[in-house]
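Retro notes (design track)

What went well: tokenization of the new backbones is finally stable.
What didn't: we kept losing track of which sequence belonged to which structure.
Fix going forward: every design gets posted as structure first, then sequence, in one message. First example under the new rule, 153 residues:
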């Protein structure tokens, strides 16, 4: 299950992706539009900025905007930024690997065997899905079925 922090980070990123190019959104607009708590969003936006996802401008016309197009922002790294490692077991983590304390053999571990393939499939989906794809899929769900293209998940 993803955290509330990750939920807010995704909402903020989608809102910024939908904002008018070159204008971005002020934090006040973002919080009002998406019904997000300002103090928490300030922390999340700082982390997104430090990671190179967004930029900010000060002043009357200031605000936040994406640094990259939404089709170059992948869900997996964004989720890791918000929540940290996403593996179900530390021995499967690609970014925070640690051998399980009670494991005698990773190759023979039934728990690792049970989670290995499903986790690999889940991870591949997160790593290959972009913010733009999520937005298109969301938009398509509001359309009549005959207008939805085959490529939308």
């Amino acid at each position: 299950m993803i955290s509330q922090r990750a939920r807010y980070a995704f909402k903020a990123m989608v809102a910024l992706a939908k904002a008018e190019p070159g204008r971005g959104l002020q934090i006040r607009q973002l919080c009002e539009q998406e019904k997000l708590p300002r103090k928490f969003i300030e922390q999340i936006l700082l982390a997104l900025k430090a990671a190179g996802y967004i930029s900010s401008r000060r002043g009357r016309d200031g605000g936040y905007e994406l640094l990259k197009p939404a089709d170059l922002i992948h869900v997996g790294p964004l989720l890791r930024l918000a929540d940290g490692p996403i593996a179900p077991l530390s021995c499967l983590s690609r970014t925070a690997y640690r051998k399980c304390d009670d494991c005698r053999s990773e190759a023979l571990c039934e728990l690792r065997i049970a989670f290995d393939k499903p986790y690999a499939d889940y991870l591949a989906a997160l790593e290959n899905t972009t913010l733009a794809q999520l937005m298109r899929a969301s938009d398509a769900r509001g359309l009549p079925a005959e207008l939805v293209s085959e490529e939308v998940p």
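Added context from the reviewer: The chain has a mean pLDDT of 88.
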